[in-house]
Design a protein that fits this description.
Layout lengths: L7 E4 L6 E4 L9 H14 L1 E4 L6 H9 L4 E2 L15 E5 L24 E8 L7 E5 H6 L3 H8 L2 E5 L1 H4 L5 H4 L12 E5 L1 E3 L6 E3 L6 E4 L4 H15 L5 E4 L6 E5 L3 E5 L8 E8 L6
Parallel strand pairs: 2-3
Antiparallel strand pairs: 1-2, 3-14, 4-16, 5-16, 6-14, 6-16, 7-13, 7-15, 8-9, 8-12, 10-11
Bound molecules: succinic acid (SIN).
The site of succinic acid (SIN) has 9 residues, from strand 15 and strand 16.
């Protein structure tokens, strides 16, 4: 089927997320539909689609309408697609999930990935939700004084302390690997101007940010902890409940995400395609 629809955009809350209805992602998209999805993604930070029956090839074709695909260095790949689809998997006998803490992907890269398109392949009976938090809302809610201070600051991010390790369960059981490739360090503004929306987003995260540029770890920790507590406030969040055929497409520059690990003894298998981004300022 070809799409020729007017998409329906339904916000999922006051500040973050929107469900996009009336589109079949298995079919080629019209330019106007791509533009609506892109605009909504940049504005709301994450978009959701329901009841999509798409093959890995169609997942790739959809992703390529937005940006070139990033080949993930650390995740297990789905066989047969040149590394373009990564697996986010937890088996019934595994207790640790991937992404089970607030983070934004790839902030350790000089040019961080735009975002990811995550597709549910197998879900637990209950649980396994993904939470999203708006970093636009987090920035906007800071005082003018703190915004002014942070506007002149940059932060140091790294992959080394996360993907360079080999002792974590998901590394020992082979879901994550290639530790030798975890050599990325990057410095980005603490408040970035989003290249698509022009809005300012808070751009530090508990997983990959080490310190403020020119500050020690000890000096940085109290302010980073304050910002992490602030950014994780429920007012800035939306919790997405997956169903078979659900897709979440998030923007790493505008959101954090958190994969809830509340389905012990069950399998959850997601396919993730990550898109290349643009330089941040
Ligand atoms: C991730 O952090 O990329 C995984 C999110 C999820 O599995 O819900």
């Amino acid at each position: 089927m070809r799409n020729s629809s007017v998409l329906e955009v339904v916000p999922t809350g006051p500040v973050v997320g929107a469900e996009i209805r009336g589109v079949d992602l298995a079919a080629p998209l019209e330019e106007a539909e791509v533009a609506t999805i892109r605009r909504t993604l940049f504005d709301r930070g994450v978009v959701f689609f329901r009841d999509q029956a798409i093959s890995p090839e169609q997942h790739i074709a959809f992703a390529e309408r937005f940006a070139p695909i990033n080949i993930n260095r650390f995740f297990t790949k789905v066989d047969g697609f040149g590394g373009r689809i990564a697996e986010v998997r937890k088996e019934p006998n595994q207790t640790k999930n991937i992404g089970g803490g607030w983070h934004t992907d790839h902030s350790y890269d000089q040019i961080p990935a735009l975002g990811s398109i995550l597709l549910a392949r197998e879900l637990p009976e209950e649980g396994g939700d993904t939470l999203f938090a708006s970093m636009y809302a987090a920035w906007d809610a800071l005082s003018d004084g703190l915004k002014q201070t942070l506007s002149g600051m940059k932060a140091v991010h790294s992959s080394r302390h996360v993907f360079g390790r080999t002792d974590r369960p998901e590394q020992q059981d082979g879901r994550l690997g290639n530790a030798a490739a975890a050599t990325q360090d990057a410095i980005h503004p603490v408040g970035i101007r989003h290249p698509g929306s022009g809005r300012i987003a808070l751009y530090v995260n508990p997983a990959f940010t080490l310190r403020f540029e020119g500050w020690t770890d000890e000096e940085s920790k109290p302010l980073l902890d304050y910002l992490y507590g602030h950014a994780a406030r429920p007012e800035f969040q939306y919790r997405f409940q997956w169903q078979p055929g659900s897709i979440a497409f998030w923007d790493n520059r505008a959101t954090w995400h958190y994969a809830a690990n509340d389905y012990q003894g069950e399998r959850r298998l997601m396919h993730r395609i990550t898109l290349e981004g643009e330089a941040l300022s």
